[in-house]
Design brief:
Layout: H1 9-26, E1 33-36, H2 41-51, E2 56-59, E3 61-62, E4 75-76
Parallel strand pairs: 1-2
Antiparallel strand pairs: 3-4
Helix pairs in contact: 1-2
Length: 81
Amino acid sequence: MFKCHLYNWNDISKLCKELAKKIKASGYRVDVIVAVARGGWVPARILADLLEIKELYSVKTEHWGMVATITGEAKITQPLN
């Protein structure tokens, strides 16, 4: 069995706001956000809005079973061109 932490909407919103604040403070200019499917779309969209980024893409990932296991590996299953 693997450990996981379940986040609610408030947690996700708070974490995204904290990350956006750190990114802005660093002076780094983000050109694009790539969201990983199966959990990353919502945070990616929130970050894109907070950072005023128009370029938002998604990547599909798959792994054996419904959740990753110690013996399984998540894999990107679409072209990245």
